[in-house]
Specification:
Helix content of chain A: 25-40%
Helix content of chain B: 40-55%
Strand order of the largest sheet of chain A: 1-2-3-5-4
Largest interface: A-B, 34 and 28 residues
CATH topology of the largest domain in chain A: de novo design (two linked rop proteins)
CATH topology of the largest domain in chain B: Dna Topoisomerase Vi A Subunit, Chain: A, domain 2
Largest sheet of chain B: 4 strands, parallel
Strand content of chain B: 5-15%
Number of helices of chain B: 8
Oligomer: heterodimer
Distance between the termini of chain A: 45 Å
Structural class of chain A: alpha+beta
Shape of chain A: elongated
CATH superfamily of the largest domain in chain A: Recombination protein O, C-terminal domain
Number of strands of chain B: 6
Strand content of chain A: 15-25%
Chain lengths: 229, 194
């Protein structure tokens, strides 16, 4: 029986399992996504929460392992309302796109950074952070794009416009929707380089096109919750 | 026959084949009358209990006892995840309004969105001008919170007061034993003391 003593983890999904147990999907730093049974955990006085770094131990062989111990390794965060929907969305992205037992330690850190700051930002900053998360996630999973060079090998010019060509990269076009400035902001990948509202939408569509390619027929259902948030 | 009865009992939560066997032998050896009563009650209930047309709780009639009670305040609507939540709130005796049962919560990863949860039915209900306040009594879980957020956005267009049940230290509980999330919530949701 394989036993894992304390792994750094976040809970990304939970559902009821039998009488008093829960099926828990964790995203761990060292082991990637793992699905564990928390036996009797619904009756426990302290409830296991999302958006909080946890230390978990688990054991078992086969696909479904058992959570043996857990503790909170973080301070509480107040994530609610529209912010909560954004966090649910990134949980769903991880749940769908990251495979079991496929660790991406850097993505784990990016996730923690995201939940650390998201609640303190204004609306546009939140959306920009979300776009950066998607972009960084795609790179971590091996589907990154070089935002510095166009598909002809020329350096991206801040004053020019580009179109995105699937599998190839960015193509310079006078009436292209993607500004070189947006690509520059994606290279900086920080909150200071927040693009204007129009470019935020362009970036959303660009990321969505790239994500949809990976998702195939799968749908990200959290997107349906956005329109009211 | 004995085996199929055993299997039938196994559908109950927490009942495995060993417990089911005890039930089977108890009914067959010691309490045939009780067994007949149980069978009759089961058939009656399975055939006649349906969902209340107004609140979707279980009911023998078109409208459940709470919805058809004219003394209850129809200006308040308490939204809960399951019919057992109604039972819990009713036992407290602290609420005199009406209810709406969601039969679940929004869970995008499981493919449960607004349409699967039948939230359009709730939207229709909110158009009814007698409702002044909705009380979001979904669970204090992330899913419960997401569901509450979605419904509050939906209700905003109807000019209804939207409230959420308080979360905090349980009555008779000690701070020392409360978890940090509960304490944080209790502090941010503190009330003026008078």
């Amino acid at each position: 029986m394989r036993k894992i003593e304390t792994a750094s983890a976040v809970l990304i999904h939970r559902r009821a399992y039998r009488d008093s147990s829960l099926l828990l999907d964790f995203y761990t730093k060292e082991h990637g996504r793992v699905r564990l049974v928390g036996r009797g955990i619904r009756k426990s006085k302290t409830s296991i929460q999302m958006f909080q770094r946890l230390n978990i131990s688990f054991s078992g062989k086969g696909e479904l392992k058992t959570l043996t111990q857990w503790e909170i390794d973080d301070s509480p965060r107040e994530i609610k309302g529209g912010t909560l929907i954004l966090c649910i969305y990134i949980n769903e992205l991880i749940s769908v796109l990251v495979h079991d037992n496929d660790p991406h330690p850097e993505l784990f850190d990016i996730y923690i950074d995201f939940i650390n700051v998201i609640a303190s930002l204004n609306n546009n900053q939140q959306l920009w952070l979300l776009r950066l998360f998607e972009s960084n996630m795609l790179s971590e999973l091996g589907y990154g794009l070089d935002y510095r060079i166009d598909l002809n090998g020329n350096e991206i010019d801040e004053n020019k416009n580009y179109e995105y060509r699937q599998h190839l990269g960015f193509d310079e076009k006078v009436d292209g929707k993607i500004s070189g400035k947006l690509l520059g902001s994606l290279v900086s990948s920080d909150l200071e380089s927040l693009p204007d509202e129009g470019m935020l939408k362009v970036c959303r569509n660009l990321n969505r096109e790239r994500l949809n390619l990976l998702l195939g027929n799968k749908k990200i259902r959290s997107r349906e919750l956005f329109f009211v948030s | 026959m004995i085996e199929s009865l055993n299997k039938a009992f196994c559908i109950l939560p927490g009942v495995g084949s060993k417990t089911a066997n005890r039930f089977v032998y108890h009914l067959l050896e010691r309490d045939r009358d009780g067994g007949m009563k149980l069978a009759k009650a089961l058939i009656d209930a399975m055939e006649n209990v349906k969902h209340c047309q107004s609140c979707r709780a279980l009911s023998e009639k078109e409208l459940c006892n709470i919805c058809s009670n004219t003394v209850r305040d129809s200006s308040q609507l308490c939204i809960v995840e399951t019919p057992t939540d109604i039972h819990a709130i009713e036992q407290s005796g602290a609420y005199k309004g009406k209810y709406f049962v969601l039969s679940g919560y929004l869970s995008p990863i499981d493919g449960i969105g607004a349409s699967e949860l039948g939230l359009n039915e709730l939207e229709e209900k909110l158009k009814d001008s007698t409702i002044n306040e909705i009380i979001l009594a979904t669970n204090a879980t992330v899913e419960g919170e997401v569901t509450a957020h979605y419904i509050s956005n939906m209700a905003r267009q109807f000019n209804i007061q939207i409230t959420r049940i308080a979360h905090g230290i349980p009555i008779g509980g000690e701070l020392e034993y409360a978890d940090i999330n509960t304490i944080a919530h209790a502090l941010s949701g503190r009330k003026k003391y008078d």
